[in-house]
């Protein structure tokens, strides 16, 4: 690994994230690093992928029933149990696009089950550290004990194609500061 945190092998560059990743991704990364250190990480080799997943399955916690449900053709159960992203420690934040602002305003008059269901398409889960950073910058505010929304003027921290993106400390859009 060089000083920029990149591993080099031929033309492959692997960038190491500067932040803590979810446990499943850390396990996947660790498995890849083990293969790398053993000299077995050759992406052109068809034998690599079965070996990688065999090792990964040994390290990951037990399947919560997803695969068993698929084998039994219980696809609704499989979909309910499957989690691509570990949501432990994640907090819901309303993404500022479409009619989200109007629906967040409705919630301001009182949080109801129907109001939350109407807002569900606009919810994005962010990790606690990310929410803390955005709260400290004034870019999001807390609506309830575990529910946040973007502050007017900071809509630029959300991109409809890439999701929440910001570099450094988020800043309000200058035109929103004009009275």
Walk me through the topology.
Elements: E1 6-9, E2 12-15, H1 23-37, H2 48-59, H3 66-71, H4 75-81, E3 90-94, H5 100-108, H6 113-119, E4 123-127, H7 128-136, E5 140-144, E6 147-150, E7 158-159, E8 163-164
Parallel strand pairs: 3-6
Antiparallel strand pairs: 1-2, 3-4, 5-6, 7-8
Helix content percent band: 25-40%
How would the global form be characterised? extended
Question: Biggest sheet, strands in spatial order?
Answer: 4-3-6-5
Distance between the termini: 51 Å
The secondary-structure class comes to: alpha+beta
Which descriptors would you attach to this protein?
36% helix; disordered N terminus; 179 residues; four-stranded mixed β-sheet; 8 strands; 2 domains
Structure notes:
It is a single chain. The protein is of the alpha+beta class. The protein folds into 2 domains: about 1-85, no CATH class; about 90-175, no CATH class. About 35% of the residues lie in helices and about 15% in strands. It has a 4-stranded mixed sheet, sandwiched between helices. It has a two-stranded antiparallel ribbon with strand order 1-2. Mean pLDDT is about 75; it is low at about 1-10.
């Amino acid at each position: 690994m060089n000083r920029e945190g990149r591993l080099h092998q031929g033309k492959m560059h692997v960038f190491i994230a500067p932040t803590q990743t979810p446990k499943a991704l850390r396990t996947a990364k660790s498995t890849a690093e083990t293969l790398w250190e053993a000299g077995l990480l050759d992406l052109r080799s068809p034998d690599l992928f079965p070996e990688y997943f065999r090792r990964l399955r040994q390290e990951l916690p037990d399947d919560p029933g997803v695969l068993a449900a698929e084998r039994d053709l219980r696809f609704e159960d499989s979909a309910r149990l499957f989690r691509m992203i570990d949501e432990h420690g994640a907090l819901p934040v309303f993404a500022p696009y479409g009619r989200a602002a109007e629906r967040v305003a409705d919630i301001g008059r009182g949080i109801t089950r129907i109001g939350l269901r109407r807002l569900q398409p606009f919810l994005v889960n962010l990790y606690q550290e990310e929410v803390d950073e955005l709260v400290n910058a004034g870019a999001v505010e807390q609506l309830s004990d575990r529910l946040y929304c973007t502050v007017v003027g900071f809509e630029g921290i959300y991109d409809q194609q890439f999701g929440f993106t910001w570099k450094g400390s988020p800043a309000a859009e200058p035109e929103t500061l004009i009275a």
